[in-house]
Amino acid sequence: MIPSTRRTVRTGHGPDLSVVEWAADAGAPVLVCLHGHFGQGWVYHILAEALSPHWRVVGLDQRGHGFSGHAAAYGRDDYHRDLLAVFDACAIPQAVVLGSSLGGVNAYQFAARQPQRVRALVIEDIGAVCRDDLSWCLSWPARFPSLHAMQAAIHRYFCESAVQGDDGWDFRFDRPGIVRSQQALNGDWWADWLGSACPALLLRGGASSILSADLADDMVARRPGTVLQTFPGIGHNINEGDPQAFVAAVAGFIAGLPAG
């Protein structure tokens, strides 16, 4: 395992943000990774291991997730300002930005607004139109009596953010905030998807219920410089469903980018 470090970015406009960074040679190109709802930056540690020492990999715990603070607002502009603050605080003039689900929309919207900061995009299983409802997470118990009870009740993906308190086990992520975040994420974002010209790799799980094959094909057809890779039999979370294939796809794409 390559060494990783954590730092706190104080944004001034919102909660403090936690960033995990995997070491690389000075001057190495940067890959910034943005997880989906319920996730955290650490989920990209396998990718970071594979890309070292030639890439500096930066994983952001987005607001309301991981070790970052919970927030009063989870709007589109909030996520954009967070990412800009991380780029500036971490001295990242330009990076390839990888985003999964929530992070994917954040990534391509950031590229549309800050094209000079984004060298290329890797978008994991999210579309230019979003429609979902995450309010089911509010039906979970307020606390689980043990980690075992939590793991028996819900998918292990969510349990990666488990934390023990005095009165049982809960999550680091902000459940009510995530519901509001998804509500703000829902919408038609075609203008943002088409608003940047950098190379892009769109990854789709062949069994995904979030990104349809028709929408993925349309996104590639309408945006020059975009390529699609589908993972047969894999659902929404490709990084977890087939980590080795995910790493190979990302590594192959960024290796073929023009020199930055």
Question: How are the SSEs placed, and which strands pair?
Answer:
Elements: E1 4-9, E2 17-22, E3 30-34, H1 45-51, E4 56-61, H2 76-89, E5 95-100, H3 102-113, E6 118-124, E7 129-130, H4 147-153, H5 156-159, E8 162-165, E9 168-171, H6 175-185, E10 187-188, H7 190-193, E11 200-205, H8 213-222, E12 226-231, H9 238-241, H10 243-255
Parallel strand pairs: 3-4, 3-5, 5-6, 6-11, 11-12
Antiparallel strand pairs: 1-2, 2-4, 7-10, 8-9
Short description:
The protein has helices at 45-51, 76-89, 102-113, 147-153, 156-159, 175-185, 190-193, 213-222, 238-241, 243-255; strands at 4-9, 17-22, 30-34, 56-61, 95-100, 118-124, 129-130, 162-165, 168-171, 187-188, 200-205, 226-231. The chain has 260 residues and is α/β, with parallel strands linked by helices.
Describe the model:
Strand 5, helix 3 and strand 6 form a beta-alpha-beta unit. The chain is built from 10 helices and 12 strands. The protein has 260 residues and is an alpha/beta fold. The protein has a single domain, classed as Alpha/Beta hydrolase fold, catalytic domain (Rossmann fold, 3-Layer(aba) Sandwich), CATH 3.40.50. It is globular. The strands form 3 sheets. An 8-stranded mixed sheet has the order 1-2-4-3-5-6-11-12, sandwiched between helices. Strands 7-10 form a two-stranded antiparallel sheet. The protein has a two-stranded antiparallel ribbon with strand order 8-9.
Order of helices and strands: EEEHEHEHEEHHEEHEHEHEHH
- State the CATH class: Alpha Beta
- Supply the CATH superfamily name: Alpha/Beta hydrolase fold, catalytic domain
The percentage of residues in β strands lies in: 15-25%
CATH topology: Rossmann fold
What profile does the largest beta sheet have? 8 strands, mixed
CATH architecture: 3-Layer(aba) Sandwich
Helix content: 25-40%
Q: Which overall shape is indicated by the principal axes computed on the Cα atoms?
A: globular
Sheet/helix structural class: alpha/beta
In terms of per-residue confidence, which ranges show pLDDT below 50 for 5 or more consecutive residues? none
Total number of helical segments?
10
Mean pLDDT: 96
- Number of individual domains: 1
